[in-house]
């Protein structure tokens, strides 16, 4: 009975994600409305042709429905955090790599959905703050001419460069802290964030 309840929750979740009512899912899948209702109440479990029609209408695979519980995978969570280190090479990579990893497994691995949202929102917030500083406050500093401001001697570092190092250091620190949290299967705590992805 518990398996049917878990499966019914999955069907409801994927139906809602598609924006279908039970009636629309019935039409799309060519299954009776009563069948959809029984599946969503946990009274029956789709098998064979019913399962195939349902998954095609929902745009998912049978494994998406039959994999009833999200697995624990600290390795994948760690990979997401480490992927954000791409910001050291190119700030856009700090957003793109975690975004792709999040989209691939957000429904399959425990904590990936919340971690991905927090991480991508944080990286977007960081990118926005860094861009504002470099372009507006930093009087038109761009990453290209940033290195020209750093003289050969450390004692004469241009004062506009220091906040950039602090911004990069803060991003790196947040990634390391949350990497450790994910290895203990704890929720990530990236802050500050502007909730662009909800």
From TrEMBL:
Matches recorded under PANTHER family: HTH-TYPE TRANSCRIPTIONAL REGULATOR (PTHR46797), METHYLPHOSPHONATE SYNTHASE (PTHR46797:SF1)
Membrane-topology descriptor: Multi-pass membrane protein
Keyword Heme included in the entry's annotation: no
Database matches in PROSITE patterns: HTH_CROC1
Coiled coil spans: none
Protein's cellular compartments: Membrane
InterPro entries: Cro/C1-type_HTH, Lambda_DNA-bd_dom_sf, MamF_MmsF, TransReg_Diox_bact_type
Chain ranges of the HTH cro/C1-type domain: 11-65
Keyword terms of this UniProt record: DNA-binding, Membrane, Transmembrane, Transmembrane helix
GO cellular component: cytosol
The name this protein goes by in its record: Uncharacterized conserved protein, Tic20 family
GO MF annotations, alphabetized: DNA binding; DNA-binding transcription factor activity
Pfam families from the UniProt entry: HTH_3, MamF_MmsF
Keyword ATP-binding applies: no
Membrane-spanning intervals of the chain: 79-104, 124-145, 157-179
